[in-house]
Amino acid sequence: MRIAYCTNVRLPSERAHGHQIAKVTQALRDLGHEVEIFAPFRKNPIDQSFAAYYGLTSQVHLHHLGAIDAIAAWWAPGIVGLKLTTMLFGRMLRRILRTREKDFDVIYTRTPELLPFLSRLRIPLILELHRIPRLGRRRFLSLLRSCKLIVALTSPMRQALIDLGVSDIPVIVEGDAVDLHDFEALPSAETTRASLDIPVGVPLIVYAGQLESMGLQKGIPELIAACEILAKRGLEFRVVIAGGPEHVAKRYRETLPDILHGRVTFTGHISHLKIPTLLTAADVLIYPAPASTHPFYIRDTSPLKLFEYMAALRPIVTADLPPIRDILDETMARFCRAGDASALAESIRLTLEESEESAAMARCARAHVEQCTWEKRMQRILSREGVVSPCTISP
């Protein structure tokens, strides 16, 4: 199959969406499909190629369209620059694909903002939906008529589409996934712990992921508060919190409670290629979250980090959010109430003290994630694409 993957984000990117795009397109290539990526020209602090930055084993042809980065321009600040970039890129993308309609069997995108430009092309369209736009719902639902298949990231998201009036459009649920090859031939846990100056026998707690994204906190204040509780109880431990943005990591370093100095390390952003090494050295892996009714937490999130946690074969403690139940259950992880630092601290304590039960949960999670590889995910999606019926939406 010949696939045009279309996105409006900067590539390569240190953010999770860039990693996800790289893994999806690599999986499509590994399944034997031809893939071309179309992305906008953006000024990029990353000087490596797309393939080199993500450690891809085969080349995927990446087209950067345009020559103006409106997002970086002083005359188009903030959301104005983003909208202008998307509009200019979308128009150019539509013009190019219109001349190449016979070159592709399907268009694949995770960018709803590109639907107005892709919807009138005579190429079947698959939309992988990571969020539901808050504004322009009526137009958004109308544009979904152009899709041959919708891939919802979570079950709550699929239900939200149905509640909005989507009917007869094939909507399947596929969360994110993991590349198990990334967890092969890694340095020993002892070597990694020594490089981090973790004393022998001292438990290591790890969080790996963005500290903030889209203006949302990712549960780091709750994790710090939980660690403070454990430290005051006399528990000896070390914490590594890996992720950016750097200015956020700096802020947390500067406001860290005195009792946690020497116990908690903020590394800032580290390469995705180094994440597996860090995760497999941990005694417990943490996915915290604030108490929030934001759609990201109650509907849209399918964290890449959780799939990597499962692959690392290490015990997991996670905030109990509705979308997380698509990924994990009590046989695979310990859950705690979102926003509750005391509950998080208690779950961490139990995970460390009940080591045999925690190890059994980790083994169960590792067995489950075998079905959550990028290749199997994309194979499931494309196998549905070939049999779906035309799209309709109820009034």
Describe this protein's structure.
- This protein is 38% helix and 16% strand.
- With 395 residues, the protein is α/β, with parallel strands linked by helices.
- It has 2 domains: 2-177 and 374-385, Rossmann fold; 180-369, Rossmann fold.
- The strands form 3 sheets. Strands 3-2-1-4-5-6-7 form a 7-stranded parallel β-sheet.
- Strand 4, helix 4 and strand 5 form a beta-alpha-beta unit.
- The longest helix has 22 residues, at 78-99.
- Mean pLDDT is 93; it is low at 387-395.
Q: Any chance you could write out the topology, listing elements then pairs?
A:
Elements (H helix, E strand, L loop, with lengths): L1 E5 L9 H15 L3 E7 L9 H5 L6 E5 L12 H22 L6 E4 L5 H4 L6 E5 L7 H7 L3 E6 L2 H10 L6 E3 L15 H7 L8 E5 L3 E2 L2 E2 L2 H13 L5 E5 L3 H9 L9 E5 L6 H5 L4 E4 L7 H6 L3 H8 L4 E4 L14 E3 L4 H13 L1 H15 L4 H12 L10
Parallel strand pairs: 1-2, 1-4, 2-3, 4-5, 5-6, 6-7, 8-11, 8-13, 11-12, 13-14, 14-15
Antiparallel strand pairs: 9-10
| Shape, per Cα inertia axes | globular
At the fold tier of CATH, the topology name of the largest domain is Rossmann fold
Distance between the termini: 34 Å
Name of the CATH superfamily of the largest domain:
Glycogen Phosphorylase B
Instruction: State the share of residues found in helices, binned by percent.
Output: 25-40%
The radius of gyration over CA amounts to 22 Å
Q: Name the poorly predicted regions.
A: 387-395
Strand portion: 15-25%
